[in-house]
Amino acid sequence: MRKYLSVLLAASVSLGTGSVSADSTKHVDELKDYFMKKFPGVEIESLNDGSYALDESLYMQFENIEEFPPWEDFAAKGEEIYNTPFANGKTFASCFGDDVTKIRAKYPYWNSELKRVVTLEGDINKCLTDNGEKPLKGKRGSLAHVSAYIALQARGQKINVVVPDEPEAIAAYEAGKKFFYTKRGQLNLSCADCHVYQAGMNVRSELLSPVVGQVSHFPVWRRKWELADTKNNDGFGTIQRRYGGCNKQVRAKPFKNQGEEYRNLEYFHTSLSNGLEWNGPAYRK
Amino acid sequence: MKKKFNRKVSAVAAGILLVVSAANAGAYEVKRGDTLFEIAESMGVEMSALLEVNPQITNPDVIEVGMKLNAPAGGQSAGGQKAAYEMALKAANAALDKAASVGGEWRDSRWKKSKFVKWKNPQGKTVKGSYVGIAKMAAEAGDYGKAIKLLKVAKFQGEMGYQQAMAQKDAGPLFGASAPKVDESAKLAYEEMLKEVNAAVDKAASVGGEWRDTRWKKSKFVKWVKPDGSTVKGSYVGIAQKAAEAGDYDKAMSLLKTARFQAEMGYQQAMDQKNAKPML
Amino acid sequence: MTKPVQRIARFISALVISSAVLSSAAMAADDPIAQGKKIAEDRKKGNCLGCHAMGDGVMPGNIGPPLIAMKARYPDKAKLRAQIWDATAANPHTPMPPFGKHGALSDKEIDLITEYVYSL
């Protein structure tokens, strides 16, 4: 691993300081090429609508639903939470800045001091605990509502995850990449199996979404989660909620929410949508 | 001499009878996949004790399905079984820790939120959980046999998950710059050969001498089992191309060699009979 | 009863018993395929319809090849069973779960599924 890192470092040092790891930009381009070949006639930019970009009738149904989205009220709850001052008088704006539209596009990012990937949900909770408030636990509910509100404000902005050419940042990116391509669980499937190699194919009647454009619409409102929540019919979930669900589906033990594995995965995963627009929150089946 | 021998045999026989009668006769029926070691383990006894009360076993490596085994007296004691259970639990957890250390733990081995394993507890209620979770419940209820069985699966899953993770040390995309390298030289050699063969077949065809199975698309003469296990049939050139597609250039080359031979023979055959006439 | 008559009586009763066994065995012969179908279609077991068009199953997935003309594709039933037991042996990158190798299905269940799939 060290040898690889030093070679990469040598290669990227020549690009100058503050530069980006070469592999991260190259891999996105490779994947975009791959999907352009796989889905001729489909605009890569439209892949942030996921499977709906691949099927006209599904897209029409999706468009209909998004006219009066089922998630609107819950996103409004998120706005309320965001604008409510803490006990100490401060607000979320004291952590994130005054312009709420500028938040989403910053995340996830590599924090060179803390030497770890920082996610939006992670920083929402950090802001709370830094100000003496209780964190919003889990991967759904209020945490997702706040995240949804923030996502809504940034719609249309370009996704741009930058991997600085620092060894630990590259290692985190590579760890996320390896996780993505590793078969796991009793059912022996990798993220890539469904969302790269079999993207566009059907599992039963479910159309598999391609990985390019996948992160753009999170936090997602999933009809399946809406129906399962018999108490509140709240369909919202964060991206890491979905990671856990996917891992469980292939009979792998899910990893810790906001733990190192999922943060690195989110880092790599989001970079695969670089150049596409943030379009969360959105409805998905 | 004979008398002494008989006494020894009868003494031994009597001894066996004594031991066997003290044991639980026919306590266990051998099932497919069982080993004596595991049966002893689940009874909480040493294998030697198990063999002692089962003199009908002449070869401990060979036991038959349906065979009835006697259990050693006191071997079914809670103490012995509990010890076996605790050992199995330790082994399962060790294997699962090892899998977890490389991110390879499966969902239902011991995760507390698993609902995969179903068990009817002594109160008649069906509970669901992981293999280790339900094993612990079964042990608490005194069903050590069940617990040990579940722990064996948990241990197996730990070993498989560890292997799975370790086998993918270099997991990465199967396309682009990081794709696994195809043997370019073999591919080039095949492509050259294919060109040659096609030329040879064309030559034979030009004099009406092409054979049936060399390249004709309707031939079903050559059979090949693909890497996915399915069987395809076709001509020598046709199947060679399929093999090349699947990356099996060795197979493709060997088939092309035969195709070339046939083409040459066919051409020869036609040319030798330029002056074919009835032999009246 | 005289000895020969006894013997005949015993023979007849044995015949009756064995024919009874035979007829239930004849019925049981259909069972493996029906049993195999059930396990293959069970979402928590084979879940084959997830990826394969198979028999009369509705809304099948299309990731794997349709399971038809199986005797022509797999003349050797053992090779078909091996593929179900561990598809990664033939192709390490396959998305098909190694049902036997990973213990997702028991040997018996795989035997039954093989019987069903082979009949398609």
Give the tags.
heterotrimer; A: 285 residues; mainly alpha; Cytochrome Bc1 Complex, Chain D, domain 2; two-stranded antiparallel sheet; 46% helix; disordered N terminus; B: 280 residues
Short description:
Chain B contains ten helices and six strands. In chain B, 55% of the residues lie in helices and 9% in strands.
Textual characterization of the structure:
- The complex is a heterotrimer of chains A (285), B (280) and C (120).
- Chain A is mainly alpha-helical.
- Chain A has one domain: Cytochrome c-like domain (Cytochrome Bc1 Complex, Chain D, domain 2, Orthogonal Bundle).
- Helix content of chain A is 46%, strand content 6%.
- Chain A starts with a helix and ends with a strand.
- Chain B is mainly α and 280 residues long.
- Helix content of chain B is 55%, strand content 9%.
- Chain B contains 10 helices and 6 strands.
- In chain B, helix 4 packs parallel to helix 6.
- The longest helix of chain B is centred in the N-terminal third of the chain and has 24 residues.
- In chain C, helix 1 packs across helix 4 and helix 3 crosses helix 4.
- The longest helix of chain C is centred in the N-terminal third of the chain and has 39 residues.
- About 12% of the residues of chain C have low confidence.
- Chains in contact: A-B, A-C, B-C.
- Chains A and B meet through helix 2, helix 8 and helix 9 of A and helix 6 of B.
Whole-number total of structural domains of chain A: 1
- This entry's quaternary arrangement is heterotrimer
Task: Give the helix level of chain A as a range of percent.
Answer: 40-55%
- Largest interface: pair, residues per side: A-B, 28 and 21 residues
Uncertain runs of chain A: 3-17
Classification by helices and strands of chain C: mainly alpha
Overall strand count of chain A: 7
Q: How large is the share of residues in beta strands of chain C? A: under 5%
Radius of gyration from the alpha-carbon trace of chain A, in angstroms? 19 Å
Taking Cα atoms only, what radius of gyration of chain C do you get, to the nearest Å? 21 Å
* Alpha-carbon distance between the two ends of chain A: 40 Å
Number of helices of chain C: 4
Task: Catalogue the unreliable spans of chain C.
Answer: 16-29
Secondary structure: elements and pairs:
The complex is a heterotrimer of chains A (285), B (280) and C (120).
Chain A: H1 2-13, H2 22-38, H3 56-67, H4 72-83, H5 93-96, E1 109-111, E2 116-118, H6 120-130, H7 141-153, H8 167-181, H9 191-197, E3 202-203, E4 206-207, E5 220-222, H10 223-228, E6 236-237, H11 239-249, H12 260-271, E7 282-284
Parallel strand pairs in A: 5-7
Antiparallel strand pairs in A: 1-2, 3-4, 5-6
Helix pairs in contact in A: 4-7, 6-7, 8-12
Chain B: H1 2-22, E1 24-29, H2 36-43, H3 47-52, E2 68-71, H4 78-101, E3 117-120, E4 126-129, H5 131-140, H6 144-166, H7 184-206, H8 212-215, E5 222-225, E6 231-234, H9 236-245, H10 249-272
Antiparallel strand pairs in B: 1-2, 3-4, 5-6
Helix pairs in contact in B: 4-6, 5-6, 7-10, 9-10
Chain C: H1 3-41, H2 70-73, H3 77-85, H4 107-118
Helix pairs in contact in C: 1-4, 3-4
